């Protein structure tokens, strides 16, 4: 089998694989990424055990929330991508959570001061004013977010050289939180090594993590994918770095 046909088969397989939810099991054995040192799921579980009413924003398929061992009496999640809403409602039955479909660009559809805990893992965006509005006085917001320049090596492998990232800087998040009336009590940063062992892993990742190459389709970037396949085949895995930060804030 020649290298180009091998690439086409890998690409076709990844293009047909489902990307619903927010799990990454499909990449097992094909890509790796270090985990942040702070243990976000453990931190969420700890705070959920002490909450009475909690909200998970951008829950994805509900993967993190479903593992909470002691959920609060009132547990709600939001999701803006319709296929994920279906997955999350099925996944979150075990913890008794209500999943609300929302407009990602719209306000949170909840009354003021509805929750004493709001969490969010890898939100598309954080509406700090809305977050502060739905938090009760003394309530907490905990979020693991994607940092500036994450997976830049992969983005540039497809798109070519890019300007310095203008968004997703941790310091910007702190400023926005404080401007909304919240008090930031914790901020941590991490750079995490990632490796992609074949072009199928790249294609599947780009289909799922859509901000890495906005507007990505296999047809649009087939030439770049075949070039990257040759690079991986001859030089070894494509190495990238994911940027993450953890931010925790309270409403006074």
Automatic annotation (TrEMBL):
Pfam family for this entry, one: Methyltransf_11
Superkingdom, natural source: Bacteria
Keyword field: Methyltransferase, Transferase
Keyword Methyltransferase part of the UniProt annotation: yes
GO molecular function: S-adenosylmethionine-dependent methyltransferase activity
Claim: Calcium is one of the keywords in the record: no
Domain spans labelled Methyltransferase type: 55-142
InterPro entries registered for this protein in UniProt: 23S_rRNA_MeTrnsfrase_RlmA (IPR052939), Methyltransf_11 (IPR013216), SAM-dependent_MTases_sf (IPR029063)
Gene Ontology process terms (BP): methylation
Protein name: Methyltransferase family protein
